[in-house]
Amino acid sequence: MSDLDGYVPMIDAILSVSDPDKVSAKRIRKAIQELFAVNLEGQRKVVNALIVERFNQSQETRSNISSQDLVEKDAAIAKSISKKLNGTGKRSKSGSEASKPKKKRKSSENGNSLSQNKMLLSPELQELVKEPELARTQVVKKVWEYIRENDLQNPADRREIICDDRMKPIFGEKTTMFALNKSLSKHIYNRGEVIEGKEKSEVSESPAASNDIS
DNA sequence: AACTACGTAAACATACGTCA
DNA sequence: TGACGTATGTTTACGTAGTT
User: Fold this and answer.
1) What pLDDT was estimated at residue A7?
2) Protein footprint on strand C: which nucleotides are under 7 Å from a CB?
3) Measured in angstroms, what separates residue A212's CA from nucleotide B10's C1'?
């Protein structure tokens, strides 16, 4: 057994404060990766096996011994874990935050995100962003650049976007930042989609027409 | 092994909760 | 009260974990 032994106390601590019905090896492994800033993907099976082993042992221990000492020790470690996982202890807005993923994420590490795949754009969108194809995220970025350059946000409610002539075929008279992506999706195509089925606009109605604003 | 379910990635602006 | 962190909404292919 190896360097993984160093994680045993932490595994035990996590197990001690977790609901046995809900806890999973995956969750524990991720927690350890975060806490120790290590990548255990290459050792996933070994780590999982270790976690299962500790789980079984902890269940056994719990049923047999009710060591006050152990509980207190676990509680102390668990407290520090919880503090680390939840940041500075700030905020715990909507209930069970622990299980929720963090919204703010580091930029892609593996670069295989589909968001980076170039997509073909409808003529209306091409006209707006001045590019024939872009990654979805880049499309959004370009659209926002255009909105700011032309000062198209409603000053009273900056979530609202008042469309100009170039935007109207895509978004209608006005839209919101939340509806932006939905409207955009009608103007973004996969290459295969276009090659196999010709263009959406050719097959059925034009994307602009599919927008419910007529 | 095959299948299902879920989390992740990216962009954006604003509202709101929490802490110092 | 200001600063900071997070939720909100949307898209969808891919990776992974869990289940059959």
Assistant:
1) 73
2) 5-18
3) 27
User: A140 or A77: which carries more pLDDT confidence?
Assistant: A140
Q: What is the pLDDT of residue A169?
A: 78
At residue A28's C-alpha, the angle toward residues A51 and A88, to 5°, is 145
The tokens for A181 are 């992506």
Buried b (16+ CB within 10 A) or exposed e, A41-79: eebeeebbebbeebbeebeebeeeeeeeeeeeebeebbe
What pLDDT band is residue A162 in, cutting at 50, 70 and 90?
confident
H-run or E-run covering A43: none
Smallest CA–C1' separation from A139: which nucleotide? B11
User: Where on strand B do bases come within 7 A of a protein Cβ?
Assistant: 7-15, 17-20
pLDDT digits (tens, 9 = 90+) for A47-59: 666 776 776 676 6
